[in-house]
Design goal:
single chain, alpha+beta, four-stranded mixed β-sheet, three-stranded antiparallel β-sheet, globular
């Protein structure tokens, strides 16, 4: 059973990721959604880092020895809502997972029989018993506090803009990161072409 406090299309308004890594792509292949992701996304392996106009670091993951251990590309840029949509479609195809949308876990308790969740829904609140619970709610999830887990996290104060741009003449497919971008008041910028 999967509980999600949003709806299937809610992540379109709040994108969370722009790139899938090779290990994730291997998992997506086992789940049966890799082909859809590969067809929609843009594969890349070259990354370049700039400070101002100077390139200070670059890499090509296809040249690293571990690259050949996988049949997947190092990265595919694709908006997260596409991946989520493909996964939901796959869950419906397989038919062995119950999806419950607009279900928010508001309390958690463990006992000798497993976990007891309190779940808020549009129809009201109810309790749900589970043998195991996997929390994938992100950095603001209350589960860490509920289970007493400590996390050391750093938060930056930069603001990011994620945009899709169409080119008339396509540049090389690479990931570019500026530590100090002269065109952005010397603040960080990350982009893929």
């Amino acid at each position: 059973m999967l509980l999600d406090e949003t709806t299937p299309s809610a992540s379109r308004a709040h994108p969370r990721a722009a790139s899938a890594t090779q290990k994730s792509l291997e998992i997506f292949e086992r789940l049966g959604v890799y082909e859809r992701i590969a067809a929609k996304g843009i594969q890349w392996s070259v990354g370049r880092t700039f400070a101002g106009k100077d390139e200070v670091y670059s890499f090509d993951l296809k040249q690293q020895s571990a690259f050949n251990l996988s049949t997947q590309p190092p990265f595919i840029n694709i908006q997260q809502f596409y991946i989520e949509g493909y996964l939901v479609e796959r869950i419906y195809e397989l038919g062995n997972v119950e999806l419950r949308w607009k279900n928010c876990v508001t309390a958690f308790r463990q006992d000798g029989e497993g976990a007891l969740l309190t779940v808020a829904t549009p129809a009201g609140e109810h309790q749900l018993r589970a043998d195991y619970v996997l929390d994938a709610a992100g950095s603001h999830s209350p589960f860490r506090q509920w289970v007493g887990a400590s996390v050391t996290a750093k938060k930056g104060d930069d603001r990011w803009c994620i945009a899709d741009v169409r080119f008339r003449k396509h540049p090389p497919v690479e990931r570019h990161t500026w530590i100090e971008a002269p065109f952005n008041d010397n603040r960080a910028v990350c982009g893929s072409t």
